[in-house]
Design brief:
The protein is of the alpha/beta class. It folds into 3 domains: 298 residues, Rossmann fold (3-Layer(aba) Sandwich); 281 residues, Rossmann fold (3-Layer(aba) Sandwich), CATH 3.40.50.460; 76 residues, no CATH class. The strands form 5 sheets. The protein has a 9-stranded mixed β-sheet with strand order 1-2-17-16-7-6-3-4-5, with helices on both faces. It has a 4-stranded parallel β-sheet with strand order 11-12-10-15. A hairpin with a 5-residue loop joins strand 8 and strand 9. Helix 6 packs antiparallel against helix 8 and helix 28 crosses helix 30. The longest helix has 22 residues. The radius of gyration is 30 Å and the shape is globular. The relative contact order is 0.16.
């Protein structure tokens, strides 16, 4: 054992200090990588050119609330020389620019700042960039720091939002808007950049309108790992294929899911149930499926798109309409999963990997109706009583009692009500833990918090119940490898061909044998053997036969995993590093050319890097009325998985192959680790590539 002071000598050793430093060789390598820059930014200055040919369906409420920016157009960034004195002077004037991260972190955010900083300093070294701390609260409370080249270099190509942190506050009241305006004026800002998702870019549009007369420009940047900030015009032309951070998070999740696929094919013991982030869209689940070839992947939009043609036909024959035939029920969804599990077990694979988007329940009609109704009830209660529903009814029984009173009032008065007796009865049939989930406190935006609901537990609870029923019916069984069966009986001194036709329903040339459905217990096994004159009533089942039967009885074991926050903090892929750095340069071009109420974007992300086109997108024309927190609000619309897109259709066509409910190896794919090659064309989301190929 070392002397008491021995540890000091070890700690003072230079090699030990290098080994234990937070600065590792990989980190140094990441920081040194210089993201590629779109060719347009090599020009001395840039200008904006309005692009024609894009059509937007403009909401009347957007016209009313955002009059100064509603006529904004799609603007392409073009390179220009310095011969135009007015353009050059305007581009190169000294500025003070503020930037704020809003909402959850997404890999690549630091490179947005780096791009803005480098572009601004190239135009004018005296321009200052300020970062607001802890998200929108930093703007409201005037908490900002000037960002330096040294500080930015420390975070270049690294994940998270650690440079200035982030927060979920919204600048959504007159008081907050006034305080934010005062902050911007006190700092002498020419422009404010808001990096965030759909809600944050909605916020950017309203701030651009509010600050319009003050001459303070507001520019949004599309960020969300969910991938649900995508922009198309009314004719379907893609303007922004995906928000930044999506690819990095998907790759991080895919690495973990792939590891489980490897474990599954090695141990063959568990079904790994992998819930991935994605509250209102299943883009991450789809990308993970394409990256890993997991055995089962549920896509919420596909569930919602389901049509039960048998029920429609039955209703037509009866002269009625069955509206419940459109969209998959929770029970039906569990049956689909069970069918896949049973089929894999039949070929000796009582294991697998399943990917579930956290918001899959939102796509199930019966659950969606409950969410809408409960959102309305909670929102109305809060406004009517000027209090908080969850504080007034802190435990589940209190909440249920309030709902019962609503149902009773409806029953006694027959007035129209959001909550009626049928709703109450159906709600009380749901397990308590799911009732609690549906009644969770909404987030700061009034959204149902699917990330706090054990989606996997809800689905797999129903799956396990139904698998037990199928087991009792003799349908859910493990396939027995023919050679294993033969060796076992020969070792026991028995003739496999005599017992085989009695035990198995497919005793022919099939590789995996299935015990007959009528043999569902040792008792029914004995009866089958007696009927075949292979044993007497007073005899015990031969040990070899009992061993084969026991092996046919499946033991369904699961391991659950949630992938969300780890993806938000992952190292950005080369795609996201380059994407975000160019977004930063795009932001500065928009500011330098006087734009406001625009969202920086890169068009043609699905194509080669040389085809990427920096553009500014008008936010106001993209906004529409949606129900939020029990009332209609003007917001930027989320983008869902298009079930007609090539990427989804490819995944759908390969489902059977990936399920691998056949003898032999599974079709698992191992995704590449995140590394920088200097060629972003080698590192792009598979969904983007497939959608481009399949156009």
């Amino acid at each position: 054992m070392s002397a008491p002071n021995g540890i000091e000598a070890i700690l003072s050793n230079p090699d030990v200090q290098i080994i234990t430093s937070k600065i590792n060789p990989e980190l140094v390598s990441h920081r040194k990588m210089a993201p590629a820059l779109c060719g347009v930014f090599a020009s001395p200055v840039t200008r904006l050119h309005e692009k024609e040919g894009f059509v937007f369906e403009i909401d009347n409420e957007a016209k009313r609330l955002l009059p100064n920016i509603i006529r904004n157009k799609v603007q392409a960034v073009e390179g220009a020389d310095a011969s135009d004195i007015n353009l050059s002077e305007g581009y190169r004037k000294q500025r003070r620019i503020g930037i704020v991260f809003s909402g959850g972190p997404a890999p690549g955010g630091h490179n947005v700042i780096a791009g803005i900083f480098d572009a601004a300093k190239k135009a004018n070294p005296d321009t200052q960039i300020f970062g607001f701390l802890m998200g929108p609260d930093g703007v409201i409370e005037n908490r900002a720091v000037e960002l330096t080249a040294v500080r930015i270099q420390q975070y270049l190509n690294l994940g998270g939002f650690g440079m200035i942190k982030t927060g979920r506050a919204k600048i959504d009241t007159p008081k907050k808007m006034s305080l934010s305006r005062e902050t911007c004026k006190n700092l002498g800002l020419n422009a404010l950049i808001i990096v965030g998702g759909d809600d944050s870019n909605t916020n950017a549009a309203f701030m651009a309108q509010e600050f319009y007369d003050d001459g303070i420009q507001v520019i949004g940047v599309p960020k969300t790992i969910d991938g649900d900030v995508q922009v198309r015009d009314a004719t379907g032309k893609v303007l922004c294929a995906v928000s930044f951070g999506f690819h990095s998070a998907a790759r991080a999740f895919a690495q973990e899911v792939s590891n489980l696929c490897t474990d599954c094919s090695s141990d063959m013991k568990y079904w790994h149930i992998c819930k991935v982030m994605g509250r209102t869209a299943s883009h991450l689940a789809l990308e993970v499926a394409l990256q890993t070839h997991a055995n089962i992947t549920l896509i919420g939009e596909d569930v919602a798109d389901y049509v039960d043609h048998k029920r429609i036909e039955a209703a037509e024959n009866a002269g009625t309409v069955d509206y419940t035939a459109y969209g998959m029920t929770l029970r039906h969804l569990s049956r689909v999963v069970c069918d896949a599990i049973v089929r894999r077990a039949a070929v000796g694979k009582n294991c697998g990997v399943m990917v579930i988007p956290e918001g899959v329940l939102e796509f199930i009609n019966e659950i969606q109706i409950f969410i809408i109704k409960l959102n309305t009830i909670i929102g109305v209660y809060n406004r009517t009583h000027d209090t908080d529903f969850h504080l007034d009814f802190p435990v589940l029984e209190d909440k249920r009692d309030y709902l019962r009173r609503l149902a009773k009032a409806h029953r006694e008065t027959s007035d129209l009500s959001v909550w009626n007796t049928r709703d109450d009865d159906l709600f009380n049939d749901i397990p308590d833990f799911f009732q609690e989930g549906l009644l969770l406190e909404r987030d700061s935006h009034g959204n149902f918090q699917f990330s706090l609901v054990e989606t996997d537990k809800v689905v797999m609870g129903l799956v396990k119940d139904y698998l037990n029923i199928l087991k009792e019916k003799g349908i859910y069984k493990m396939g027995i490898e023919r050679e294993y069966y033969r060796r076992t009986l020969v070792a026991a001194g028995m003739d496999p061909d005599i017992f085989g036709p009695v035990l198995f329903k497919n005793y022919d040339n099939t590789l995996y044998l299935l015990v007959k459905e009528s043999i569902m217990s040792l008792k029914t096994l004995k009866q089958a053997l007696i009927r075949a004159n292979l044993m007497e009533e007073d005899q015990k089942i031969p040990p070899g036969i009992e061993k084969i039967y026991n092996k046919s009885v499946p033991q369904f074991k699961t391991q659950t995993h949630f992938y969300g926050y780890d993806g938000r903090g992952s190292i950005p892929t080369e795609f996201d590093c380059v994407y975000t750095y160019n977004l930063g340069w795009t932001v500065f071009s928009l500011i330098a050319n006087g734009a406001t109420g625009q969202m920086a974007a890169i068009r043609n992300l699905e194509k080669k890097f040389s085809d990427w086109e920096p553009i500014g997108l008008p936010i106001a024309p993209l906004m529409h009325l949606e129900e939020r927190n029990g009332r209609l609000a003007l917001v930027l619309e989320k983008s869902l998985v298009d079930v007609r897109s090539p990427a989804f259709l490819v995944a759908k066509a390969l489902r059977e192959k990936w399920l691998a409910a056949t003898p032999g190896d599974d079709d698992y794919r191992i995704p590449e680790p995140v590394h920088f090659t200097g060629n972003v064309d080698d590192d792009r989301p598979i969904t983007l590539l497939l959608n481009d190929i399949g156009k």
